[in-house]
Design goal:
inorganic pyrophosphatase (n-terminal core); alpha/beta; 12 strands; six-stranded mixed sheet; six-stranded parallel sheet
Length: about 350
């Protein structure tokens, strides 16, 4: 059964039309799907004459700065008091592209103390039951795909504006690797076609997302591949690690290492890849796999993370060296599970 087949979507729209303060949130370290899904809803609500506010935990990569409405986003990292007041004072609060309150960083306390009617729209596995209304589908390519399906359920698909379509398309493109990942279903491609029919320029979006590299960014990627990539052929695995000093050396900006873990995964014979790097207060991890190996289970078991079967993340307060060594030490345990050929 489709998650939007019952009456809940229509009842939600009725509630939104009478709401005084609607707030849309996404996870810490927002990516294309997080920013795209919240701004898509913001734009569609705007077209319906419904006011809303996007509140994000922290900044997003510069290659997403073109989306309409981005200047209206409230960042908790820059305006903590205002962001928390908006979340606590909302009467409808959207939980988009995350399924556990721990994913919103400094906004967690405000989120957990609000009396708002909470609505989850998400596509990650194993959602926590902390909301009033849940639209969760881990078979969906992206949260943006779910946003389109919700708008479609409302009967508004033919009225989607170019601004809304562009945001939805961006989230789908970035979460599917430009439709390369197995999560891209026939439904995903039909939605992409429908978005193009709004007059949205899909080629321009691809250019804005993927063809705006800085020289320092390319040098960082080159350094990471040439000097920091370690392949473990006996385990069909590859790891890239970058320290804070190395990132600083190349004038790192958020988003500069986007897709680096997929480059490691693209190596012939590699079924599991990890990219780990130091951030301001922790070591962040991105895991990718092809085929049957679940990086979501791997991350959840050892690093308190999660995500999707073939794409997951995690974090640790241990040192970069200790995290790297822990992953290496775990590889023999998973040697049999990683011993297959899907490429």
């Amino acid at each position: 059964m489709d998650i939007f087949d019952d009456n809940r979507a229509g009842e939600l729209l009725d509630r939104l039309r009478g709401a005084k303060r609607i707030v849309l949130t996404a996870h810490r370290g927002p990516d294309g799907d997080a920013v795209g899904s919240t701004l898509a809803m913001w734009n569609h609500f705007k077209d319906l004459g419904i006011a809303s506010t996007v509140v994000l935990p922290d900044a997003f990569p510069e290659f997403l700065n073109w989306m309409y409405g981005k200047s209206e986003i409230v960042l908790h990292s820059e305006e903590p008091n205002r962001a928390e007041e908006l979340v606590r004072g909302s009467d409808v609060l959207f939980i988009q592209d995350y399924n556990d309150s721990s994913r919103v960083g400094g906004l967690q306390s405000a989120l957990e103390s609000t009396e708002a009617y909470t609505v989850m729209i998400d596509h990650h596995q194993n959602p926590s039951d902390f909301v009033d209304l849940m639209f969760s589908d881990d078979t969906s390519s992206s949260t943006c795909e779910l946003v389109y399906r919700l708008i479609e359920r409302w009967g508004h698909a033919k009225d989607i504006s170019v601004n809304t379509a562009s945001c939805i398309y961006c989230g789908i493109v970035t979460d599917t690797g430009s439709f390369r990942f197995p999560s891209s279903s026939p439904k995903t491609l039909r939605i992409a076609a429908a978005l193009c029919e709004t007059g949205m320029d899909h080629s321009e979006i691809q250019t804005r997302v993927y063809d705006n590299n800085r020289v320092e960014q390319l040098k960082l990627v080159g350094y990471a591949i040439s000097s920091k990539l370690i392949v473990y052929p006996e385990f069909r695995a590859a790891i890239i690690s970058l320290s804070a000093e190395e990132l600083k050396r190349f004038s790192y900006r958020k988003g500069d290492t986007e897709g680096l873990v997929n480059t490691a995964l693209s190596i012939e014979g590699v079924n599991f890849a990890a990219f780990i790097h130091e951030s301001s207060d922790r070591v962040k991890m991105s895991f990718r796999s092809v085929g049957s190996f679940s990086v979501s289970q791997f991350s959840a078991s050892h690093f308190g993370g999660g995500g999707h079967h073939n794409a997951a993340g995690g974090a640790s307060f241990d040192s970069l060296e200790d995290v790297h060594q822990k992953i290496v030490d775990l590889l023999p345990e998973y040697a049999a599970d990683l011993d297959y050929s899907d490429k």
